[in-house]
Amino acid sequence: MMSHLFPTYSRWEIEPASAKGTKITAVDGKEYLDFTSGIGVCNLGHCHPHIEQAVTEQLKKFWHVSNLFPQSMQEKAAKLLADAAGLDLVFFANSGAEANEAALKLARKATNRSKIISFNNSFHGRTFGSMAVTGQDKIKNGFGPMLETFIHLPFNQVEAFLKEIDQNTAAVVLEVVQGEGGINVATSEFLKVIEKACKDNGTLLIIDEIQTGIGRTGKPFAFQHFDIKPDIITAAKGLGSGLPIGAVVGTAELQDAFGPGSHGSTFGGNPIAIAAAVATMEMIFTEQLLTETTAMGQYLYDQLVTTISKIDGVLDIRGMGLILGIEISGNVPEVLSSLRTKGLILLPAGEKVIRLLPPLTITEAEVNQAIGILESTLTNITSAAL
Ligand SMILES: Cc1ncc(COP(=O)(O)O)c(C=O)c1O
């Protein structure tokens, strides 16, 4: 049958019929263990009852009224988000790319500068600004000239960075763990040098927490593992548990740059998405859930190191909390396809990495099941390739 969708995605062979927790049931009745969480979105597992209830309650009140009305639930969501990040003010958008787009606009207006530094292998989205700031040619190929004041530097290389940052630099944009680019973790030294150089130059530090935020690493935001304070963070993905929402979170000093009429979005901060975000943050930003996430991240990492890292062709295991990667020498799409036939759904990251993004509510039994499938699949694939 001819598809009427642009072929922008190479899709898998599984059509979901329903999903609950860590399980997806396909239309043919087959069950899968979902270690993708909808690409880092359903951090509480699929269809969490608390989120369902919050969304259902809002559905019965009103769906959309526009941002011309005051909305106390938006205020509540903004306070939860700002408090968790140690920042002050929030602008709500509908996606990660939109949040980054807004953050770039905010930084340029607040500093009255246009130069933006970001890093190779980063991913920040597909709109023009977020694409231009992304450090991967494959995302930009074919779309013509990008933005000439956007500079890309090697990740984790202090000297190259110090040579480039100057008093014309509006902002530095980075992911603490590069998600799409291969699960590359920033070093503490790199982050500290960036933070200091930003202060010295009057440059804003923007941390893209779209994949790493909302509890994924065992803290509300990944930057909180390091002793640094960004001026702006962006969040999306896990913020709405599957309802579309994005957010820019910044310091009070930025207030004047985003005054009335400076930026906006019809759907940004939509009441249904906001209801999901409030319920999600109330569940995730708790000591108990974050402690459990840290423990399960450690458990999964330890299992990967003891069982998987020994297999021929496995080159590295890395990440933070429950954003983890297995670097292999084999063909990642082929391995992922074999894993799916055995009931485990995983993601790629970069060319050579298998990415694990299970829900934060994952159990030890589910981790053990996934490790068993990974072990048998990777052993067979690598021995077949030899
Ligand atoms: C770090 C990061 N930034 C930005 C984005 C873009 O988010 P969205 O797809 O919601 O536009 C993503 C999506 O994968 C991401 O991982």
TrEMBL record:
Compartments, record wording: Cytoplasm
Reactions performed catalytically:
N(2)-acetyl-L-ornithine + 2-oxoglutarate = N-acetyl-L-glutamate 5-semialdehyde + L-glutamate
Where mainly located? cytoplasm
Binding positions for N(2)-acetyl-L-ornithine? R126, S265
Q: Give the matching SUPFAM superfamilies.
A: PLP-dependent transferases
Species assigned in the record? Mesobacillus maritimus
What is the designated name of this protein? Acetylornithine aminotransferase
Q: Where is the signal peptide?
A: none
Q: Which residues carry this modification: N6-(pyridoxal phosphate)lysine?
A: K237
- InterPro entries, per the entry: AcOrn/SuccOrn_fam, Aminotrans_3, Aminotrans_3_PPA_site, Class-III_PLP-dep_AT, PyrdxlP-dep_Trfase, PyrdxlP-dep_Trfase_major, PyrdxlP-dep_Trfase_small
Q: Name one GO molecular function term.
A: N2-acetyl-L-ornithine:2-oxoglutarate 5-aminotransferase activity
Q: PROSITE patterns recorded for this chain?
A: AA_TRANSFER_CLASS_3 (PS00600)
Cofactor(s) needed: pyridoxal 5'-phosphate
